[in-house]
Design brief:
Elements: E1 3-8, E2 11-15, E3 20-25, E4 31-36, E5 41-49, E6 52-59, E7 63-70, E8 73-81, E9 92-94, E10 99-103, E11 109-114, E12 129-131, E13 136-142, E14 145-150, E15 154-159, E16 163-169, E17 183-188, E18 194-198, E19 202-205, E20 211-214, E21 219-224, E22 231-235, E23 240-244, E24 247-250, E25 259-264, E26 270-275, E27 280-284
Antiparallel strand pairs: 1-2, 2-3, 3-4, 5-6, 6-7, 7-8, 9-10, 10-11, 11-12, 13-14, 14-15, 15-16, 17-18, 18-19, 19-20, 21-22, 22-23, 23-24, 25-26, 26-27
Length: about 290
Amino acid sequence: MSDVSWLEDDVLAIVYECGLVEVLESESRSLLASRKFDKQITGVCGKVIDEYTELYILFKGGDLACMHVRDGVWMTIWSVSCGTAISFAKPILLNKDGVIVHVRSGQHVVAFTRVADGKSVAELDIGTLVDAKGIITGSCVRESTVALLTESGLIVEVDGAEGVQRMSRVVFPVDPQNESVIPTAIESMTDGTLAVGFSNGLVSSASGEKVYLSTKGGIGCIRNLPQSSTVVVGTWKGNLFCVANETALDLQSPHACNVSQIAVSPSGGRMAVASTDGRVSVWNLS
């Protein structure tokens, strides 16, 4: 499994590392469109526009493509080579301003690609490049910026127009039994703070002042449900926890290995969970 993304409230895009892309109706699981590419894929995002679906697909070699899908026909609108891409937690994001954020040219650098409907390759603006000063282990959209988490605990907040906005440091947990703890996931919370997950199973605020969860196994993904303080956490072992009012509920996950992605639908009514074994589960949050 590479990535899962909501295109609208009842439509999911799922991409597999082998190059397969599927667009599904989430409730019935009916297949709306699919295509097998001859290149590995690391990420996808997009939206449904009137009678067609617009997909932004990031290939492992670094190519970024915009494709329109209508009545089973796939059309490439533009494609651009962006250097070497790597796979990390949510390697491609579409922020509120319609800017795609993706890894470029190695492990440290991200690119901000501005997109607009119908633009040709020649008109495509690659925008700002930012060096995150370390190996990127996670990312999240935070208001008008994107927060990048590095293995050393540095948080770099950037946007596509101004570049680096803020830099801060994660407060690492004290774990005498594990001196090699690294941060592995990050999420923007509704109260304006950042939550960080670690390889020792801890989820806390970036400042270290609040602990959300302490479990066994590393943290694969964190997702704050819209307009609430509730957090859903996925682990490397496939466990899923819902944390609300300082109480953690085990969701009895159907996944048996690393939860690589948790995506919430635009209205907040559904949640899609993907794991590295190719399994996707859809949850009703209402």
